[in-house]
Amino acid sequence: MTELLCKKGKKNIAIKNPLKFKINTLGTQAINGNLHITISNSSKTHEIGKYFIETRLANTESKELIDILENSLKNSKLTKNEIKSIMKENNTSLEKFIKKINKNLENKDLSTDEIAKKLKNNVKKKA
Fold it and tell me: What span, in angstroms and rounded, lies between the C-alpha atoms of 116 and 38?
């Protein structure tokens, strides 16, 4: 026999406390570094990733690394269409790079050393 939790015809309504709220906070104290605390809307993967990037920013002095990390934080706010266009640009440049390498490999007039030198130069330009 089942028991009724409420009167017949009435719904079970949970009473919620309006003063109660939820907050997600992540914090780190590096041994030889700076304290970093982040308050976020959620604790999903991308929010945790942002936290790690911000923590690394707080504990580095390298200008190059700071620029790269700040750029990655800015790019985390891109829309799906903007991300797709960037991926298309990178994909076409990669295809061109592969074609250039294949062209050098297929050139029978070049010696092994010349092919290696050209490939090395192509890789340096790509990086």
Answer: 49
What is the pLDDT at residue 29? Answer: 83
Q: Tell me how far CA of residue 63 lies from CA of 33, 57, 73, in angstroms.
A: 17, 10, 15
Give domain limits for the chain: 21-77, 79-127
Cα separation of 79 and 10, whole Å?
A: 45
Q: How far apart are CA 63 and CA 58, in angstroms?
A: 12
> 3-state DSSP call for residue 36?
strand
- Cβ contact 47:36 at 8 Å: no
Cα–Cα distance, 59 to 32 (Å, whole number): 9
The tens digit of pLDDT for each residue in 1-18 reads 455 566 666 666 677 788
- The DSSP 8-state label assigned to residue 32 in this structure reads T
pLDDT digits (tens, 9 = 90+) for 60-113: 888 888 888 888 787 766 677 776 777 677 666 777 777 877 887 787 787 878
